Amino acid sequence: MLMTGEQYIESLRKMNTRVYMFGEKIDNWVDHPIIRPSINCVAITYDLAQDPEYADLMTVKSNLTGETINRFGHLHQSTDDLKNKVKMQRLCGQKTAGCFQRCVGMDAFNAMFSTTYEIDQKYGTKYHDNFVNFLKMVQEKDLVVDGAMTDPKGDRGLAPSAQKDPDVFVHIKEYREDGIVVSGAKTHQTGSINSHWHIVMPTQAMREEDKDFAVAFALPTDAEGLYMVYGRQSCDTRKMEEGADIDLGNAKFGGQEALVVFDDVFIPNEYIFLKGEYDFAGMLVERFAGYHRQSYGGCKVGVGDVLIGAAALAAEYNGAQKASHIKDKLIEMTHLNETLYCCGIACSAEGQATAAGNYQIDLLLANVCKQNITRFPYEIVRLAEDIAGGLMVTMPSETDFKSDMKVGKNGETIGEICNKFFAGSPACTTEERQRIMRLIENMCLGASAVGYRTESMHGAGSPQAQRIMIQRQGNIEGKKALAKAIAGIK
Amino acid sequence: MKCGVKFCGGCNPRYQRGDAYRQIKDELDDIDFDYAQEDVPYDQLLVIGGCPACCASHEQYTAENEVIKMWDESHIESVKDELLKRNSNKGE
């Protein structure tokens, strides 16, 4: 059953998810003006799946049930599936200009499917069956699942088991016959609050002494003992202003991050996917990170498309669109953005089947993709700010533009003064110029910059994590052999 | 003539695919257009792509005639002509 966006939003209302923000419990978090744009972002992944113009990317036949499902719940069955994932993410980025949050679950599904298969092969456990049953339920109900990986980590110089406070890594606190009790937290969780379920994974490779920390499981977002503290974003309280619209830049869509706390949460056996098999923690992390590094070659490109369009409009509204340096900057932005897309497609095209049968990306190329993502959006933002001009951060508020307070000697109002001095090319109204400047502000340094800039840097792993993988996968010995052969060295 | 229509997924279309479809549909009232479904047999299948890759999947649908594909605004007229031709052939 494919849900509509509206049905998804209604389904959230039925959950007893515990959300805290600004020191208070938020009971109606679904309609909260700071939170709602991030819910709208996920809702679009449902609405696009219902639209014949987008269904070819947004939906797919499940290999588990044979039914048509949302691609966000799919196990990739080919390199075409991997490429279509990236294309779908570009589409969703274009439609929201923000983080639509549903990728982490999809990437967790694919990493968990292949890893649980291999754990069972070695240890005779039943994690793969547990996971497949869970995923069938997710596909049938068309649910959103958050993939939770990043632990707070405490002292980065110490292993999980050596930390003064064990809660800085999610761990098994109690072993019971019917399940486990877990404690700890996950940080920076994108799309956590508005997910129906969570899949929780370890954050790094583990050693034997850390086996209580080598744990993966699924749980409903409103499970007893689970709660979230909402993360702040730049300019977030603009959304609380009465009648806020233009000053938001992107009034409908946005991202969401939270601290997710596991306060002694019971996990029944059927939802456990890893319990102490510490030698597989690294494999799970590496696979999830690989898929998620591929994801950025789609989603950030879609957001980049919007920012390039906004910069081009700003140039037109400023009357500067014919200047050769403006044209060249737009070319450079496009070149950078499409290079990122090339990386996303390339690591997909070079994908291969896992032992479990689903497809995974080429890890070297996926890490190269994400390494570029840590850089190019920053340059695209720099060029957008260059083209837009200082007005994107110095313009008076929407309220000033609408103010009828008389301030001029001839009775001019604040609104008239603002409209007089901020008028640009006759190709646009002053309000249109305001809107495009605020959109650029929103994406470059406002609420959506969380997703487009800092998430590009640290999401799916910080730059050094990719460099370690590039070193491992880069085949330097093979390259040395090539050089020796050409140089005549035996 | 019954024509099933399939869009590509629209990851980065170079023109408004929906507008192109409406333009074709509105001018060819004799043809019965519908979004393609797997369990429905069609006389004709029209695939509307957004770029030259024209990557929409369509093997899952059944149509009597060879599929017609378009991936550019400039194809609208030739697609209309071809559909008209095939529609009149069907009537003969």
The total count of helices of chain B amounts to 2
Say which CATH homologous superfamily of the largest domain in chain A is assigned. Answer: Butyryl-CoA Dehydrogenase, subunit A, domain 2
**Widest β-sheet, arrangement of strands of chain A:** 2-1-10-11-7-6
Structural class of chain B: alpha/beta
Integer-rounded radius of gyration of chain B: 12 Å
- The dominant shape of chain B is globular
Give the largest interface pair and sizes: A-B, 14 and 13 residues
Domain unit count of chain A: 2
Return the average pLDDT of chain A rounded to an integer.
Answer: 97
Which key terms come to mind for this protein?
heterodimer; A: 490 residues; alpha+beta; Butyryl-CoA Dehydrogenase, subunit A, domain 2; Butyryl-CoA Dehydrogenase, subunit A, domain 3; 6-stranded mixed beta sheet; 4-stranded mixed beta sheet; 17 helices; globular; B: 92 residues; alpha/beta; 4-stranded parallel beta sheet; two-stranded parallel sheet; 2 helices; 6 strands; 29% helix
